[in-house]
Amino acid sequence: MDVIVDRGVLQVLLLAVMFLSIMVEIKTGGLGVGVLLGIVAAAVFWGSQYTRGLVEFYHIAVFLVGVLMIIVEILLPTVGLLAGLGVAAMLYSIVLALGGDIGALAALGIALAISVAVFLLVVARLPSSRLWNKLVLHNSSRTEEGYVSAVGAVDLIGKMGKVLTELRPAGTVQIDGRPVDVVSEGAFIEKGTRVVVLSVSGSRVVVREA
Predict the structure, then answer these.
(1) Cβ atoms within 10 Å of 53's Cβ, excluding its own
(2) Contact 182, 173 (CB under 8 A)
(3) Contact 91, 118 (CB under 8 A)
(4) Backbone angles phi, psi at 15, to 5 degrees
(5) Mean pLDDT, range 79-94, rounded to an integer
(6) CB 162 within 8 A of CB 180
(7) Tens digit of pLDDT for each residue in 129-188?
(8) Is the pTM of this model over 0.85?
């Protein structure tokens, strides 16, 4: 494995697969094949670098913290802050793992370019998660089209609604004919299920199955 990963081309490809898997999971909001491919690519990349003494556990830990932030953002969307910090942590650790020089930045840039190019080819065929809609300012989230921001929506407490997208635990519920971003108490709730609003705290609307 060391001999193979020594080749710059394969390093770039492994990084491209990792980045592509992250983009796919942010777009879909699920934990599927993209995650599996990303894990394999990350294991080969970091495993080889670590066994050859090119990185320390600290670098791997920073990378894993970044991944964890992105996973939390996917499952419990905020405003994209955790995803941004997670990506920054991952990029920082990867640059250090590649040597922390201009060559490392070049390899990182090429890997990102490849992953973005492939992602753009398949993005239209992938379902969209709540986080993705926020990141791209999806049209369905505009107030003039009926979208209701959770901020200040205390009057929603106690109201009934119908799940528009699966709550895993985050998703969208229709309340009084308008879509509202919500999060369940933690349980998975299927599309079409009736739910009731338990509480509203800032931008967080909590519901449970009625």
Answers:
(1) 7
(2) yes
(3) no
(4) -65, -40
(5) 82
(6) no
(7) 454 555 544 444 444 344 454 444 667 888 888 998 888 778 888 888 888 888 888 778
(8) no
Query: What is the SS3 assignment for 48?
Result: helix
- Six token digits for residue 141: 């989230």
Q: Count the neighbouring beta carbons within 10 Å of the beta carbon of residue 165.
A: 20
Beta strands in the chain (DSSP E): 160-163, 170-175, 178-184, 194-201, 204-209
Closest to 146 in 3D by CA, of 175, 171, 179: 179
**CATH numeric code, 139-209:** 2.40.50.140
Q: What are phi and psi of 184, to 5 degrees?
A: -80, 175
β-partners of residue 148 are: 180
Q: What is the number of other CB atoms lying within 10 angstroms of the CB of residue 61? A: 12
Length of the chain: 210
Q: How far apart are CA 40 and CA 26, in angstroms?
A: 18
Closest C-alpha to 209, from 169, 179, 180? 169
User: Which of helix, strand or coil describes residue 208?
Assistant: strand
Question: Of 159, 161, 172, 163, which is closest to residue 190 (Cα–Cα)?
Answer: 163
For the chain, the structural domain boundaries read 2-133, 139-209
- Rg of the Cα trace of the chain? 20
pLDDT (tens digit, 9 = 90+) per residue, 27-62?
A: 665 556 667 777 888 888 888 888 878 788 888 899
